[in-house]
Amino acid sequence: MKYLRKRAYRLVQDSNLFAKLVLQWSANNTRDFPWRKTLNPYHIFIAEVLLRRTQAERVVESYLQLIKRYPTPDSLSRADVCKLRKFFQPLGLVRRADLLTEACKRIVYEYGGQIPNNIDAVSTLPGMGIYSSRAVICLAFGEPVPMIDESSGRLLRRVFNLDPKGPAYSDRELLRIAETIIPAEHAREFNLGLLDVAFAYCHHSLPDCLHCPIGKICSHYCNRY
Q1: DSSP for the chain?
Q2: What is the domain class of 34-141 according to CATH?
Q3: Stretch 180-204: mean pLDDT, rounded?
């Protein structure tokens, strides 16, 4: 076990192989969602509020309709909350209406109608959590901060042979490792690629190790095969 962990660390630290493998795979294999095609901080913020604990496919149409009806934080801050609740009701996401309007009011009055490019400020906005605030800062502003959800956390734990220490998004050891391997100039592409590699291959029960592009440096793969 110790040998495998040292081997994985050496490969990553000496050659940045982990990041290279993720970026190479993601160049042609990442999932296609509309919020991934924009650098608009407001649009990305909307997407991250909608995506919390919700499958991405479920909110695509809602996202597109929202940014069309309410193109700025100011317009959403003045939205009729009752109508917005009805809009979200079919998805079972009624609470998102209140979170979005409350957040946009703060964005307008405290930040001049612009999404703040500071992770501490973003994390205090209604609807934001640890992961989602990191996602906004990375995807909208290009900051090299890790975006670790349960799937990508599972992948990192398997690659580096780590024991779970609470939720992945707040696991300090995971975040420390991610911070050391994230390429500063390609943080956005790397974080999205890592999420998609994990989604495609690193399943909870039956991981597809044989086809995973990270397999060559994965402790779980080496132990299994």
Answers
A1: -HHHHHHHHHHHHHH-HHHHHHHHHHHHH----GGGG---HHHHHHHHHHHTTS-HHHHHHHHHHHHHH--SHHHHHTS-HHHHHHHHGGGT-THHHHHHHHHHHHHHHHHTTS--S-HHHHHTSTT--HHHHHHHHHHHH--------HHHHHHHHHHHT----S-GGG-HHHHHHHHHHS-GGGHHHHHHHHHHHHHHH--SSS--TTT-TTGGG-HHHHHH-
A2: mainly alpha
A3: 94
